[in-house]
Amino acid sequence: MLQPARKLAFVLASSNHGAMIVNRLDYRMVDNVGTGVGLQILDQGAHDAVECELAVKLLMLRREFHGDGVVGIDCGANIGVHTLEWAAAMTGWGEVVAIEAQERIYYALAGNIALNNCFNAIAIHGAVSAEPGVMKIPCPDYQTPGSFGSLELKQRPDNEFIGQSIDYSDDKMAPVQKVPLDALNLSRVDLIKIDVEGMEIEALEGARNMIDAHHPILLIEHVKSGSELLRAWLAVRGYDVVDAGINLLGIHASDPVRQQLRPNAAGQAASAA
Fold first, then answer.
1. Range of the domain at 52
2. For the chain, how many structural domains are there in total?
3. CATH assignment at residue 127
4. What is the spatial distance between Cα 144 and Cα 111, in angstroms, rounded to a whole number?
5. Would you say residue 4 lies in a domain?
6. CB–CB of 24/41 below 8 Å?
7. Is residue 1, in this structure, part of any structural domain at all?
8. pLDDT tens per residue, range 176-232
């Protein structure tokens, strides 16, 4: 029996990160220039290659100074680009915890972890937050073009347009578990990447105990949360902060990894020696 016609959004693609389940409609076009994780992977073979390389080097430095058993947390993991790169690099000496709030994207994340045999990575479906509980998040149409990684879970006056209109009406939202990082009760944490579209401060607040106990390296996107606010939060906790593209890189003053960083030619973005 023939199945009814339907648009195929998720496809299996070969990428520089490994074989990946990718939404081919994950893009937004502005003046004939496209943005989106899916578009970058399908068009260029990779997404955020420079940022991934920096994160892997930082994880390797944590191993050098703190030994095996390295743990990286990927907050706002999307379909798992960083997760796959970290897990592959840390085979035999480290683990990855990947957290993603959008249910359909979480399915792809978990599938990509399995597809690439990343037995040292786990995926959690949830929204990184300051406190436990449940929140409602919007549900974009994944069969219509949109930069899904840019979706903001909370409505604001200036929400970014992702390429399609987003309905924040209560009856159009879906419940998702809140995940404060402190609730993970990890015995070690070396690196936390936070890319949660404007909820970065909330993510940090939910990780206060973890950060105070383990002094992990922090790689935080600042576009929607504000650089100064994030810098102030980190400074109070003894972190030195440098620019790293659209991210802030925070390294605790007590961490020997700090001595291994050098500025790039522009004197801003950090790179690992």
1. 10-272
2. 1
3. 3.40.50.150
4. 21
5. no
6. no
7. no
8. 999 999 999 999 999 999 999 999 999 999 999 999 999 999 999 999 998 999 999
